[in-house]
Design goal:
single chain, about 100 residues, alpha+beta, Ubiquitin-like (UB roll), 3 helices, about 20% strand, globular, binds FE2/S2 (inorganic) cluster
């Protein structure tokens, strides 16, 4: 079972213990504030922007070129920015922490 923690723009933590799917889908299932997922994971909206905690970047990897093109259109981005629909939860990511970007 893989666990993911979301830190919302309000500073609340949402912990999902049995996370299956991608980080956007899981967030929507648990009504995580700030994750809209308007394109349902097609990598075309950026309404699922998160920042990965630095200690997890090696495991999640950095944004792909297609992600980065969308991230560049957003505000409040940095080198940790990812589109959460592009991060698939795996056992390897058990304990992952992401910050939901303000919208
Ligand atoms: Fe649209 Fe992630 S849900 S880019």
């Amino acid at each position: 079972m893989a666990k993911v923690t979301y830190i919302t723009p309000s500073g609340n933590e949402v912990v999902v213990e049995d996370a299956i799917g991608n980080i956007m889908e899981i967030a929507r299932e648990y009504d995580v504030e700030g994750i809209e997922g308007a394109c349902s994971g097609c990598c075309s909206c950026a309404t699922c922007h998160v920042r990965v905690k630095p200690e997890w970047l090696d495991k999640t990897g950095r944004a792909t070129e297609a992600e980065q093109d969308l991230i560049d259109l957003e505000s409040d981005t940095d080198e940790r920015s990812r589109l959460s629909c592009q991060i698939e939860m795996t056992d390897d990511l058990d304990g992952l922490v992401v910050e939901v970007a303000p919208f």
